[in-house]
Amino acid sequence: QVQLQESGPGLVKPSQTLSLTCTVSGGSINSGGYYWNWIRQHPGKGLEWIGYIYYSGSAYYNPSLKSRVTISVDTSKNQFSLKLTSVTAADTAVYYCARDIEGQSHLDPWGQGTLVTVSS
Amino acid sequence: QSVLTQPPSASGTPGQRVTISCSGSSSNIGSNYVSWYQQFPGMAPKLLIYRNSQRPSGVPDRFSGSKSGTSASLAISGLRYEDESDYYCSTWDDSLSGHVVFGGGTKLTVL
């Protein structure tokens, strides 16, 4: 079955760019019809959707993060990536990647998550 | 402040039936499917309900979902200690070019 795994630096300095990659295994990211998502969870808080990219390359973002977020897909590596610019301590969170079958929050499966701390 | 409103906590005793509510608006719950997720501490969320009331394979039929107007509910019958977890509702919101929204989460305690 499809599995997702996040990877990237666990520590990012303020004002820098947070970059994470999600590697998809057990299936092709290009197989069609899926939306590849990033979601984050601040420590002790609820879930916040960051955005998704459709397998064709079109992307939707959370309006509150849109000016700082870019999600891209690399079909040759079966990966999709997140870039969040100008980070502050408020961006410290566990970042999850997940597949959406319908583009309406039908998120399954999820990666295990990776903690990113923004600190100097 | 979450777009979808859930009670921060809920509780029940083993064997009881518990419901968790999720309130939204016409631009989200009122016009789109609702999903529910279960999350244990330190773990990734897991899809529990999709398309308002559908269960993925492997999810016990003790879990059920429903939607009416701009509100949705998750019901857990035959409550078990292992159901103690955080639960989140979620849906698509048609406003601002569209985006996924989540409820603030409900911590379920089994007494």
Task: Describe the protein's architecture and organization.
The complex is a heterodimer of chains A (120) and B (111). Chain A has 120 residues and is an all-beta fold. Chain A is 0% helix and 52% strand. In chain A, strands 2, 4, 5, 6, 9, 10 and 11 form a seven-stranded mixed sheet that branches. A four-stranded antiparallel sheet of chain A has the order 1-3-8-7, with no helix packed on it. The termini of chain A are far apart. Chain B has 111 residues and is mainly beta. In chain B, strands 1, 3, 4, 7, 8 and 9 form a six-stranded mixed sheet that branches. In chain B, strands 2-6-5 form a three-stranded antiparallel sheet, with no helix packed on it. The radius of gyration of chain B is 13 Å and the shape is globular. Chain B has strands at 9-12, 18-23, 34-39, 46-49, 63-68, 71-76, 85-93, 99-102, 106-110. In chain B, strand 5 and strand 6 (71-76) form a beta hairpin. Chain B is built from no helices and nine strands. Chain A binds chain B through residues 37, 46-49, 51-52, 60-63, 96, 102-113, and chain B through 2, 32-33, 35, 37, 43-47, 50-51, 56, 88, 90-92, 96-105.
